[in-house]
Design goal:
Length: 374
């Protein structure tokens, strides 16, 4: 209730909002009028081609959402019972849940304090003879250290699935994330760098992986014999309506990313020289796309951070806490992830969306400053 009231208040600044222009509306209208409203239609092919070309990989397979893309990637690689999959302990729950859906064991490991991404040293310490895959997550728009992770994976003959749900267009030494793993996934949920409403994509350079994923996406139906199924597959397809929105956004991706970078610059200027405050990091080998502004305040515990969020809400500013450690949740096992447990309670995401104005960011910065600088 409270949430709905706030969202309809005129001057309330939400955490996120999609950018919908005439282009998006035109494509959605066109898809609707064509009658191809389910998972056949030209927008699906066009979206898959446009987006995979942007990432710099050969194949893209659109899915109903990013979680489905993760599960599909794991199933495609044959990961299941008895296998262990290493993931960072700080991520959205979907990364862990998809591993469970596949029937494998989730192994959560620590992150780097600066990039907030999975720590290669912590991966190394947790590799066992049962480890079958690593899922690095490019958290909040910053790339994980893929060269190091791929080296480890090669040494131990382990698959790598990049979870790039939050990092469309992020780069490592000029190469886009999503092109480093055996396969990678993206999400196009409404608050992501670009959206298709709900939606996701598996991308890969490996043609046989792509074919296998495509087969499983559509109930594993035989090419030669309709309604004959070779495996237990899924309905993880994207609709043509979603793809129409996705294509319009993919065609605007450079513009969408450029705005994220500009917003980060505004916050950086507005929040400089506050004792104990840290904003998003960018390693010298990385291009961060700043999916969400990350503010960390050295002196916060979970309680103070939550208190600060209600102060912001009183001033019409929405915010989000960092994700909680996966290993703290009842479905998952404890782990000794010191950095994750130190960092999560100090972190807050601030409004970061295309239509946000400099005036609004300055208002947010002044409000934050008045609270923390006193
Ligand atoms: C959003 C997200 C997902 C899941 O994507 P959905 O499209 O919401 O299913 C997976 N991993 C991470 C890190 C995410 O942020």
């Amino acid at each position: 209730m409270v949430q709905i009231q706030l969202l309809t208040m005129k001057n309330f600044i939400p955490i996120s909002k999609p950018s919908i222009t005439d282009k998006e509306i035109k494509y959605i209208n066109d898809a609707a009028k064509s009658g191809w409203v389910s998972s056949l239609g030209k927008y699906i092919d066009d979206f898959e081609n446009q987006f995979s070309e942007f990432i710099g990989v050969n194949f893209g397979l659109a899915t109903s959402n990013g979680t489905a893309a993760l599960h599909l990637a794991l199933e495609t690689l044959g990961i299941g019972e008895g296998d262990e999959v290493i993931i960072p302990d700080l991520t959205f729950i979907a990364t862990a849940n998809a591993v469970k859906y596949a029937g494998a064991k989730v192994v959560t490991v620590d992150i780097e304090a600066d990039t907030l991404c999975i720590d290669p040293d912590s991966i190394r310490k947790n590799i066992t003879s049962n480890t079958k895959a690593i899922i690095p997550v490019h958290l909040y728009g910053h790339p994980a250290n893929m060269p190091e992770i791929n080296k480890l994976a090669k040494e131990h003959e382990i698959f790598v699935i990049e979870d790039a749900a939050e990092a469309h267009g992020a780069e490592i030494n000029g190469q886009k994330v999503g092109s480093f793993g055996d396969c990678s996934i993206f999400s196009f949920y409404g608050n992501k760098v670009m959206t298709s409403g709900e939606g996701g994509m598996v991308v890969t350079d490996n043609e046989s992986l792509f074919r296998r994923a495509k087969h499983l996406r559509d109930h594993a139906m035989s090419d030669k014999k309709r309604y004959w199924h070779t495996d237990i597959g899924y309905n993880y397809r994207m609709t043509n309506l979603q793809a129409a929105l996705g294509l319009a956004q993919a065609e605007r991706i450079e513009e969408l990313i450029a705005k994220k970078l500009e917003i980060f610059d505004w916050y950086k200027k507005g929040l400089k020289d506050i004792n104990g405050v840290k904003l998003n990091y960018q390693a010298d080998w990385a291009k961060n796309v700043y999916w969400m502004i990350c503010l960390e305040y050295e002196f916060w515990g979970e309680k103070e951070r939550n208190q600060f969020q209600s102060t912001l809400r009183d001033k019409n500013i929405d915010s989000r806490p960092y994700f909680y450690p996966i290993s703290d949740m009842p479905m998952y096992k404890e782990s000794d992830t010191f950095i994750v447990h130190d960092v999560y309670k100090k972190g807050l995401n601030l409004p970061t969306y295309f239509d946000l104005s400099l005036t609004e960011v300055n208002y947010i910065c002044e409000t934050v400053k008045a609270e923390l600088d006193s």
